[in-house]
Amino acid sequence: MNSIGEACNDLKRDYDACFNTWFSEYFLKGHTNDSMCAPLFKVYQECVKRAMKDQQIDFHEVEKNLLGTEQERKPPQKPS
Amino acid sequence: MTRFYEHTTIFNYTWDQVAQGFWKRYPNPNSKHVLSEDTVCRNVRSGRLFSTRLLSKTNPIPKWAERFITSKHVHIIEESIVDPVNKVLITYTRNLGYTKVMSVTEKVVYRQSDEQPGKTVAVRSAWIDSQIRGFSRAICAFGYERFKKNCNKMVGGFNYVLANMFPLQSTVTTTHATITATSKLKDAAINASALAKSKAVPIYASLHPNQS
After folding, report:
1. Hey, where are the domains in chain A?
2. CA–CA distance, B98 with B75 (Å, rounded to integer)
3. Nearest CA of chain A to the CA of B168: how many Å?
4. Does the distance separating the beta carbons of B127 and A1 come in below 8 Å?
5. CB of A19 less than 8 A from some CB of B
6. pLDDT of the residue at B64
7. SS percent in chain A: helix, strand, coil, step 5
8. What pTM did the predictor assign?
């Protein structure tokens, strides 16, 4: 799968490979330390953030967390 | 106005398998409309994995909607939380831009099935809104139908990826190991993969680029 920035494709591929290994072999088995892929993530992130800026994507909007907050949508109330 | 949609799907895979497959579900034969996928934020807090991903997708719309939307692509933000202890994966997805024209928010909760061990239940909820005066009903109706169609594509595509990652899953039985087991397992793997592919291809073949 491509990155939003063509220049980031290789960095994304390397990071994703590391993450998928870490997720299956470590995280799902109870080892939650996420430093294993941190260096790859850092370089990949710098590239993605540059690409997002070039494409005028609003960072503030992207980084807003709604899941688990008051702003999360709720199913309509069922009539009692 | 808001249209609300709710649907439950069962995946014939364990929660661990679904959680691993979640990050690898693109590309698949049903995801030609997904153009890019990036992780923009990720950390572990209190033993749970929090991620935010940015996706871009093509945005096929009917002719009458072209006056409201000029972009051929739409950006999607996907937040997710993976709880490996309770085996719950929650995703929360929304579009960026054009949200007043049409906003689609989707929440999916993936849990182990209590009734069917070894399977995963996905409960999907979605809210489709529009704030365009005079057109909101039509826009919501269009959005709702497109969403339903895309959900079927997504489940088919996800199953395709899971079948390739875990080919023995659909044919696992509690048999004793025998000398012929190896060749049987190999045949089963080929069959499961072929079955998944044959299920995915008709779904993909029925897509038309201009389908709204």
Report:
1. 6-58
2. 10
3. 18
4. no
5. yes
6. 77
7. 55, 0, 45
8. 0.81
Contacts of residue A64, defined as CB under 8 A and 6 or more positions apart, other chains included, come to none
Q: Return d(Cα B146, Cα B101) in angstroms, integer.
A: 15
How far apart CA B94 and CA B41 sit, in angstroms, is 16
DSSP assignment of A35-63, as one string? -TTHHHHHHHHHHHHHHHHHTT--HHHHH
Distance from CA of A14 to the nearest CA of B (A): 12
Q: Is B38 on the interface with A (CB under 8 A)?
A: yes
pLDDT of residue B184: 52
Kindly indicate whether the ipTM for this predicted assembly is greater than 0.85, answering yes or no. Answer: yes
- CB-based contact (8 Å) between B66 and chain A? no
CA of residue B83 relative to chain centroid, distance: 19
Query: Nearest-CA distance from A47 to chain B in Å?
Result: 10
A2 reaches B (C-beta below 8 A):
yes
Residue in B112, B146, B111 with CA at minimum distance from that of residue B126: B146
pLDDT at B194: 59
- Mean pLDDT score of chain A, rounded to an integer? 93
Residues of chain B with pLDDT under 70: 169-212
Rounded distance, CA A55 to CA B96, Å? 13
Sequence length of chain A is: 80
Q: Is A34 on the interface with B (CB under 8 A)?
A: yes
